[in-house]
Design brief:
It is a single chain. The chain is mostly beta strands. It has one helix and ten strands. A hairpin with a 5-residue loop joins strand 7 and strand 8. It starts with a strand and ends with a strand.
Length: 121
């Protein structure tokens, strides 16, 4: 799996089935009739990836990428699907919680609860 040029282990796409490409606005006319206006979204699908174990080095690379790359880039999932995305800044785009309370962690220290947030463009 690749996040732009950063290789990472396969990560589950946790919100793959919680999004619809269709949206509808509804309102009532003066007569009381329901007016429904459906539309298909052209972009903006959120992609949230989570992994339990990544090294501190990889997490630092992903954090640096999220700070330096405001435009679009490609991600390739473990099943070879590729998406053009950008980091989703509506929440922190990269979060990670240490697996162990280490006093002086090195780059090989493992992290848990790593979450990556993207949005398709």
């Amino acid at each position: 799996m690749m996040i732009d040029t950063i290789p990472v282990p396969d990560m589950p796409w946790t919100n793959e089935y919680t999004w619809s490409s269709w949206v509808a606005t509804t309102q009532y006319a003066g007569s009381g009739a329901l007016l429904v206006e459906p539309a298909q979204k052209q972009a903006g699908r959120p992609i949230v990836l989570q992994e339990d174990l990544l090294t501190r080095e990889v997490v630092n690379q992903l954090l640096a990428h999220s700070e330096a790359t405001l435009g679009s880039f490609n991600i390739t999932l473990g099943d070879a699907r590729t998406f053009t995305v950008m980091w989703d800044y509506s929440a922190p785009p990269v979060t990670a919680t240490p697996l162990l309370d280490e006093v002086d962690p090195d780059n090989n220290s493992l992290l848990m609860a790593v979450t990556l947030r993207f949005i398709t463009v």
